[in-house]
Design a protein that fits this description.
Layout (H helix, E strand, L loop, with lengths): L1 H56 L2 H10 L4 H29 L5 H14 L3 H10 L7 H11 L1
Helix pairs in contact: 1-3, 3-4, 3-5
Length: 153
């Protein structure tokens, strides 16, 4: 009876360890899925903004109506907004890659290469100036603002 109790106890301990390991793995997978979903959502938002902007630029009557309603010169506005849009798009891409790295979706080596490219982009005065204007809009991520301010600028 003692041997049977001992074997049952050992089996229960092994079963508990296996169950604990399985639960830990499931929790990690769920966290990764949530992070992937968040990253994908950010990507879709960036693409939607780009699509809306290009639809405005590629529809002459809509662009003309928009610039007239806001008392803007169409060519100056288009040049200014294309520049602003491209810089915003680059900053959003930096944010998506930063979040992907933070959530273990991309590797350290991939992120390091991306970070070097982002540092080159932030060398431009127009990008730095635009960042100063929009940095507070990234209020959802103090870590991202700190990353840009300390590692990219």
């Amino acid at each position: 009876m003692t041997i049977l109790t001992f074997i049952t106890t050992i089996a229960n301990i092994l079963l508990w360890l296996a169950t604990r390991q399985t639960v830990t793995l499931l929790v990690q997978q769920i966290r990764h899925q949530v992070a992937s979903g968040h990253s994908e959502a950010k990507h879709y938002i960036v693409e939607a903004h780009r699509d809306i902007f290009f639809r405005l630029l590629n529809n002459p009557s809509l662009l003309q109506g928009f610039t007239q309603a806001n008392n803007l010169d169409a060519q100056d506005w288009e040049l200014q907004k294309v520049s602003s849009f491209l810089i915003s798009f680059l900053i959003n891409q930096v944010m998506v890659n930063y979040l992907n790295f933070q959530n273990d979706i991309i590797s350290q080596s991939h992120f390091d290469g991306f970070k070097r490219d982002a540092q080159d982009v932030f060398e431009y005065a127009t990008v730095r100036s635009h960042w100063e204007k929009v940095r507070l809009t990234h209020s959802h991520s103090e870590d991202f603002r700190r990353f840009v301010d300390t590692q990219l600028l």
